[in-house]
Amino acid sequence: MASFHVTGGTQLKGELVPQGAKNEALQILSAVLLTEEEMVINNVPNIRDVNKLIELLNEMGVRVTKNSPESYTFKADKVNIDFLESPKYLQMASSLRGSIMLLGPLLARFKKGMIPQPGGDKIGRRRLDTHFTGFQKLGAEFNYDKKTGYYNIDASHLTGTYMLLDEASVTGTANIVMAAVLAKGKTTIYNAACEPYLQQLCSMLNRMGAKITGIGSNLLYIDGVESLHGTEHTMLPDMIEIGSFIGMAAMTQSEITIKNAGIPHLGIIPAIFQRLGIQMELKGDDIFIPAQDHYEIETFIDGSIMTIADAIWPGFTPDLLSIALVVATQAKGTVLIHQKMFESRLFFVDKLIEMGAQVILCDPHRATVIGLDKKLPLRGITMTSPDIRAGVSLLIAAMSAEGESIIHNVEQIDRGYQNIDGRLNAIGAKIERI
């Protein structure tokens, strides 16, 4: 198990280029199964979860060619469906939560699918009901085998229909869309997720020959087609990484430029960090964050304490709530952080408290942060990364703290952030992988 040895209190200065979006990658790469023609995918992030999915596709018989460090060509003309019943598939798919995204394309093109209970972060309940209910409404029949841990799905007769999703699940919507594009007839999906990742997927599918309208809204219409052809696709920059860099700049009093940030696709993210008092300038498609000695949390118009909560898009993504919480610990003012969507993502605050932060964990979903205005810097400690986002939040806290910190289980961070230590060290951080 690898660890980071972090020497805090160091100011950074320079430029950072965000990686391709992880959450988009897991959908886009799964979609290569929808056609036997070549698919060229660019700006692919070099991170553990994405690399594991590429390895899994290769084992399934998809021919994978690496064109450059961030570009791949996929050709799924000789997929071995029997591989889905092998122990190796069980082991590979169960260790990767993103493997669930393979199911929609498998059902659409091959009319059947098998998948074990996927793995991933332990951040609370992440049910798969939305995926399976959508598949069922399209006509699929599934069975869960408790002994083997396998979901078995028969999709011999997928037919378009109307469905109202019980939650606006991004992965659920993406999976249903990928199953519906080759189903007979018209599918209507209401309460669909409309995140930029989903918009990117739908736009790519349309270039492949799908007929999807309503992209960017929560009401999607899909007219099924007989087959899809190949195309080329470039992924957006990772909005979660961009938000992490904004928070890191403020915490470490650093001057940082985030290049090619895909600003039109960031939604409310810059505004939320501005509410925390962080100054930034949008220059074309770059974000410049000047070094700030202090930043002050805004209040609501009536003077009451600011609340920052996650919400479905175009609300604030839950993946950045832990970053906002850490940033607030050194701001001037008080904020209530409300994590609505997952019940375990705030449990890392005990480490922040141990570092000297003033945080009251109200319940599994809410934490009140009393900013220290950098008058009492955090102190370095030894800690363990519980999941991807909390791990980076703790890394940012350690970089701003006095003294040295050890962060264990950084493989979690590697799952979502490409060479994070090397990239940050290049602009002045002191992070040693041990």
- Within the largest sheet, what's the order of strands? 21-22-1-23
**Average pLDDT rating:** 94
Major sheet? 4 strands, mixed
Ends distance: 9 Å
As a whole number of angstroms, the C-alpha radius of gyration is: 22 Å
- The counted number of beta strands is 23
Shape: globular
Query: Can you count the helices?
Result: 14
Secondary structure blueprint with pairings:
Layout: E1 3-7, E2 13-16, H1 22-30, E3 38-42, H2 48-59, E4 63-68, E5 71-75, H3 87-94, H4 103-110, E6 112-116, H5 129-137, E7 141-145, E8 150-154, E9 162-164, H6 170-180, E10 186-190, H7 196-207, E11 211-213, E12 219-223, E13 232-234, H8 239-251, E14 255-258, H9 269-275, E15 281-283, E16 286-289, E17 306-309, H10 321-328, E18 334-338, H11 349-354, E19 358-363, E20 366-370, E21 382-384, H12 388-400, E22 404-408, H13 411-414, H14 420-425, E23 431-433
Parallel strand pairs: 2-14, 3-13, 9-10, 17-18, 21-22
Antiparallel strand pairs: 1-22, 1-23, 3-5, 4-5, 6-8, 7-8, 10-12, 11-12, 14-16, 15-16, 18-20, 19-20
Helix pairs in contact: 1-2, 1-7, 4-6, 5-6, 6-7, 8-10, 8-12, 10-12
InterPro entries: Enolpyruvate_Tfrase_dom, Enolpyruvate_Tfrase_sf, MurA_subfamily, RNA3'P_cycl/enolpyr_Trfase_a/b, UDP_GlcNAc_COvinyl_MurA
Protein name: UDP-N-acetylglucosamine 1-carboxyvinyltransferase
Catalytic activity: phosphoenolpyruvate + UDP-N-acetyl-alpha-D-glucosamine = UDP-N-acetyl-3-O-(1-carboxyvinyl)-alpha-D-glucosamine + phosphate
